[in-house]
Amino acid sequence: MKKVLIVSYYFPPDTAIGGLRINGLVKYLPYFGWEPIILTKNLSDNLSSKYNIINTPYFEYDSIASFKKRIGLNPKGSIKKQIGKPNLKNKKTFLNVLFSFIEEIITYPDNQKTWYSNAFEAGDKILSNEKIDAIISSSSPIISHIIAHDLKKKHSIPWIADLRDLWTQNHYYYYSNVRKFFDTKLEIKTLKTANVLTTVSEVLASALRILHNEKFIYSIPNGFDLEESINGNINLSSKFTITYTGSLYQGKRDPSKLFKSLNELIEENKINKKDIEVRFYGPQEDWMKQKIEQYNLQDVIFDYGLVSRDVALSRQRDSQVLLLLLWDHPSEVGVYTGKIFEYLASKRPILAIGGIKGVVNELLEETEAGYFVSSIEDIKNIIIKYYNEYKLNGQISYKGNNSKIEKYSQKEMARKFAEVLDNSIKVND
Question: In 10 A of CB 287, how many CB atoms?
Fold first, then answer.
């Protein structure tokens, strides 16, 4: 069996969504003739008995946290709060400009750059002592690609750079134009030596082709684990539950349209607020409480905070409806959130709310797993449709097309990666 070294900062049990794509690769690549070896940061509770994992020595802080520690601050606390300036967000003050400037310097080329030395040393050791046929690196963070670039340079081995999130073309990119200039030069220089670039959608692949036009670039969507997919009877919640699991990205994933729709439906006496519960599971953000109060939904919406992945999956599976929030940004048209594939595995109806139709809308239409809506009127209509079914039957039925959904399994994703790996070896030979 051929061997592939996978360089990924995130890997379960780390709860970051970025680790799920890699976990799927590691689990299913052996079905297609590839034995994965995972190079990742130190895991407190790793799966070494199940997978071949190279844990780098423990390091506690990223670049920002290390900087805070050096200047005598709590590495895990906000700089602004610790210096007594908690309300500087989005204000063009001298301190804000200064903080942004400092952050751009100390995080270049990546906030997780402290991982580099340990990871490169571990990768170099295994490539020197074992026959490894190829490397896959996964971002974000982009330090994974820098490590893989240097390993390829030293060992002349085929390298696939997988960009779950784009680098400088990412619409979540928030650094200045000066920083972006240097990041773009670094991206082109780093990925120039990769044999293949992969990403999660054809829209994002097209964007990569503009910047890296001589590269082989492929779209390989994320997937869900068939073994986690729910079959048979499900013990659904007794209330009309709508559940969101994941980050809100400082309000970019904005639930305001849903809140406004619920507020209007309650005031119009079209739904009974005692029947409904909207549940959020993920990192808590300060503005959420104010937003809930603004729409008078304190008895309806509950922000439970960050929970383990097992708890999040359980809440997905017992929910009447699953909520997917998309940022109203033109580039969001090419983004499959990792969350949507977890939702597919749960086999519950999906309500996706966003401003622009794109790959998520196409996926939901193809699989018949839910609805994509953007206007308040459409959101209200879908909620009423679901609510009336709930009142009539005590639950909402799931109507997803399983044969279409299975095309988006992690096993199918791994098969596509195996094809890319096989072709890369042939070309390299």
Answer: 12
